[in-house]
């Protein structure tokens, strides 16, 4: 029987849909939604069904590439690693650890190799210059969660399956399929809220696809969320509608709120936000009085001028209305590999060299990567390793970053494609495709609206010449640690896991406390790679079998027996146990964040004419990639500038004609699409385009290249989190 059906979790976005994959004679013939998946029940988006096209894409690299004297060559793995050793080691020796920077991109969160093997590489590198896509994304949420609840991963998620009232700001899950709130079929779940008589309100400068399926949409000026939420919280307190009885003993700082938020009223924020005062007042009342309600803010609130204030205020709104940690409110998931959270979150343990931005989560804001490369002096970045990322398209001010790349002495990219970033690398190391690896979600189980565990074995085997990504990363780690290129990575992998087991066995609260590490190791087997680490983490995790102490608990074997996943139930209240702040309580008003309120207060008086630019995501692509898949590229042109009809008329641009868009950072041209879904004064461009870069090799994408919207975004950051400001960019728009 050569035809078979396999089930696996889609690794492309945070929704974690179950896929049913038909394979015939080693070839994937069809992918559709797995109707028996315990979480997604058959839901799928257009991206999930093209995993095999990614696998078969002729532009996907099958072997390492090395550029010597300007000429690109395909080489074998030993030669690629030898080249890296020869060129990277002298830089490390001569200029120190910080001279080599690391950039870690988004897909690394979606693969076990990325989740388990990048940290050891970063540790081996010991460079202060670690940058990730987190600082073009959700760093504000980690900071507010870290400071309010003690751990940067203690992020409350909206309990959308039970809520009566969902207030959503700066998110478009009909297209993005959700973020920091893992839920396959967000559109269906939003529909369910309405079916059971609840209400969905969306606050966004664009009337999005999600707004179309909500009860109410409210236009807000980009960057207005923090001020608006401050007014909402203030109003609720002023009206005596705040109710924290359930949490009262746990929350510190509530008494400071009236003074901290003084002056933010529905009227005072009207000019900055564009939201009518009576709308603000009405929403405040509705939210406070709903049987259950949750506020949820995402990328549009985080990647803006006041990202951390907005993120904090979202959680604060849930706290003051007694909606935190209860069904229908904002709750904490419990992933199957979660470790106990004990140490209070710290921030600013070191700073970036040039602009002195504080560290957070062990990384520095990627908006300052170009500064670190281009500014001479001790600690200057001279070489870069990029892992599953495309900073040349996904991070701000890419015009300046291109200049920075040109000045680097050496670049290594781990990427399956030659992109605007990896096309600039001296060595490219391509991992196999997603279908060739096992999958277990190590990141998003902890951010899920329901507790679920689902393991997928590899669907297709490795081909001759393939190197699994965990091995690529381990080899890089050994290399930067000065261990050369000849070591047996299997032995190193076993040794590293043995160390982990040993540490775990010394912890009093561990289910394997005092057990013989050798015995645990033998249960995990001798096949190196992510699977046995996952097995170890699951078995010692909150639902684990504890290697025998909880015979009905989870293990990898048990997960293998359930190809459609195991449902671990709805979210349950977790406070106060989950809290690990120094006080042991919820910090409602962390000083690190509230010190930014004066800046917000000043902004209330800002008056701006002219346009501001925001971004948007598109269903058929994933940030800067997946534009190379023909099946996803059919149809109308997608790289368009959305302009409100009145604005278009005023500045004389026409649908289908080109507009010129210019900011302080750069300029580009885009085809205009006139639409009343845009708030007047706001224009929108999707990011991740610009596939005509000569260094890239993406034949399908290059046919409709679009342009890179990040040539327009500048290097300014949210000062509290260092997150890039990608929305609300001042631009001039003209015809032509
Ligand atoms: N203007 C603007 N810019 C933005 C955003 C925005 O909204 N507006 N959004 C931001 C956000 S939220 C994010 S997360 C970032 C994303 O920023 P990045 O993560 O830097 O960029 P991606 O476009 O996701 O690029 C991912 C790269 O990983 C490669 N890849 C895919 N799968 C694998 C794999 O399994 N292993 C390896 N090694 N490589 C793989 C792809 O080929 C691609 O080159 O972009 C940010 N940039
Ligand atoms: N198809 C597809 N799915 C994806 C991705 C993709 O590229 N394509 N990327 C994935 C990634 S990496 C992420 S992080 C998630 C992100 O997923 P979401 O957080 O849902 O992000 P977006 O879809 O970019 O929606 C952001 C919304 O914020 C609005 N906005 C912009 N500025 C402001 C503002 O100042 N205030 C408010 N209130 N709204 C504002 C925009 O109009 C937009 O509708 O999506 C993931 N899913
Ligand atoms: S919504 Fe996300 S997880 Fe689901 S099929 Fe699409 S890309 Fe995959
Ligand atoms: Mo993201």
Account of the 3D structure:
The chain is 30% helix and 18% strand. It has 736 residues and is of the alpha/beta class. The model has no long low-confidence stretch (mean pLDDT 97). β15 and β16 form a beta hairpin. The strands form nine sheets. A seven-stranded mixed sheet has the order 5-4-19-18-17-6-7, with helices on one face. It has a six-stranded mixed sheet with strand order 26-28-27-30-25-29. The chain is globular. Residues 13, 106, 137, 169-173, 175-177, 179, 203-206, 208, 220, 222-223, 225, 298-301, 304, 614-619, 621-623, 727-728 line the site of one ligand MGD.
What percentage of the residues does DSSP assign to strands (E)? Answer: 15-25%
Average pLDDT over all residues: 97
Order of neighbouring strands in the sheet with most strands = 5-4-19-18-17-6-7
Question: How many separate helices?
Answer: 26
| Hetero compounds | ligand MGD, iron/sulfur cluster, molybdenum atom
Helical amount: 25-40%
Label the structural class: alpha/beta
Number-wise, the strands total 30
Tell me the distance between the termini. Answer: 60 Å
Low-confidence stretches: none
Rg for CA atoms? 25 Å
The general outline is globular
User: Biggest sheet: strands, sense, closure?
Assistant: 7 strands, mixed
């Amino acid at each position: 029987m050569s035809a078979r059906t396999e089930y696996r979790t889609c690794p492309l976005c945070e929704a974690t849909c179950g896929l049913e994959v038909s394979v015939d004679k080693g070839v994937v013939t069809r992918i559709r939604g797995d109707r028996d998946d315990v979480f997604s029940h058959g839901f799928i988006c257009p991206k999930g069904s093209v995993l095999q096209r990614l696998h078969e894409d002729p532009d996907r690299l099958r072997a390492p590439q090395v550029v010597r004297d300007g000429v690109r060559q395909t080489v074998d793995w030993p030669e690629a690693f030898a080249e890296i050793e020869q060129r990277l080691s002298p830089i490390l020796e001569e200029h120190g650890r910080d001279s080599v920077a690391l950039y870690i991109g988004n897909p690394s969160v979606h693969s076990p190799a990325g989740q388990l093997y990048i940290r050891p590489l970063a540790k081996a590198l010991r460079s202060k210059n670690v940058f990730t896509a987190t600082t073009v994304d959700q760093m504000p949420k980690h900071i507010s969660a870290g400071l309010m609840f003690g751990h940067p991963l203690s992020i409350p998620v909206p309990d959308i399956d039970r809520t009566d009232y969902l207030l959503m700001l700066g998110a478009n899950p009909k297209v993005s399929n959700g973020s920091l709130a893992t839920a396959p079929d967000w559109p269906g779940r939003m529909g369910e809220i309405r079916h059971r008589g609840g209400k969905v309100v969306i606050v966004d400068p664009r009337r999005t696809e999600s707004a179309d399926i909500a009860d109410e949409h409210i236009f807000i000026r980009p960057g207005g969320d923090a001020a608006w939420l401050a007014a909402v919280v203030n109003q609720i307190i002023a009206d005596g509608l705040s109710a924290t009885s359930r949490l009262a003993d746990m929350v510190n700082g509530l008494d400071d709120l009236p003074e901290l938020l003084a002056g933010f009223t529905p009227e005072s924020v009207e000019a900055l936000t564009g939201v009518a005062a009576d709308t603000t007042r009405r929403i405040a009342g509705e939210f406070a009085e709903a049987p259950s309600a949750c506020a949820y803010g995402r990328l549009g609130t985080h990647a803006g001028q006041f990202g951390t204030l907005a993120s904090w205020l979202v959680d604060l709104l849930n706290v003051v209305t007694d909606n935190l940690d209860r069904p229908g409110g904002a709750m904490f998931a419990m992933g199957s590999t979660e470790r106990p959270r004990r140490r209070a979150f710290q921030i600013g343990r070191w700073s970036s060299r040039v602009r002195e931005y504080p560290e957070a989560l062990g990384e520095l804001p990627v908006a300052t990567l170009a500064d670190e490369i281009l500014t001479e002096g001790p600690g200057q970045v001279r070489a870069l390793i990029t892992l599953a990322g495309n900073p040349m398209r996904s991070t701000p001010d890419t015009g300046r970053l291109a200049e920075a790349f040109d000045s680097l002495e050496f670049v290594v990219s781990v990427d399956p494609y030659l992109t605007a970033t990896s096309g600039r690398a001296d060595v490219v190391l391509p991992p196999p495709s997603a279908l060739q690896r096992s999958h277990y979600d190590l990141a998003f189980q902890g951010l899920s609206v329901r507790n679920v565990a689902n393991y997928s074995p590899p669907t297709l085997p490795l081909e001759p010449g393939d190197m699994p990504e965990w091995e690529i990363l381990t080899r890089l780690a050994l290399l930067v640690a000065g261990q050369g290129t000849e070591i047996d990575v299997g032995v190193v992998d076993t040794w590293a896991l043995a160390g982990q087991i040993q540490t775990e066995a010394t912890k009093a609260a561990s289910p394997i406390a005092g057990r013989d590490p050798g015995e645990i190791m033998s249960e995990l087997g001798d096949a190196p790679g992510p699977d046995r680490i996952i097995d170890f983490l699951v078995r010692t995790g909150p639902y684990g079998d504890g290697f025998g102490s909880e015979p009905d608990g989870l293990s990898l074997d048990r997960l293998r027996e359930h190809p459609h996943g195991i449902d671990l139930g709805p979210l349950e209240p977790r406070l106060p146990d989950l809290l690990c702040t120094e006080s042991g309580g919820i910090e409602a008003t962390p000083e690190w964040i509230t010190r930014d309120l004066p800046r917000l207060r000043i902004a209330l008086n800002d008056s701006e004419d002219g346009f501001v630019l925001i971004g948007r995501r598109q269903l058929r692509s994933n940030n800067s990639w997946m534009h190379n898949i023909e099946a996803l590229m059919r149809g109308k042109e997608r790289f368009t500038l959305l302009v409100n009809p009145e604005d278009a008329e005023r500045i004389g641009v026409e649908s289908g004609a080109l507009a010129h868009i210019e900011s302080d950072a750069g300029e580009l041209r885009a085809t205009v699409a006139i639409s009343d879904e845009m708030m007047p004064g706001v224009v929108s461009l999707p990011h991740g385009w610009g596939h005509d870069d000569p260094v890239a090799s993406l034949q399908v994408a290059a046919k409709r290249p679009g342009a890179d919207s990040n040539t327009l975004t500048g290097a300014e950051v949210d000062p509290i989190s260092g997150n890039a400001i990608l929305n609300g960019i001042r631009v001039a728009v003209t015809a032509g």
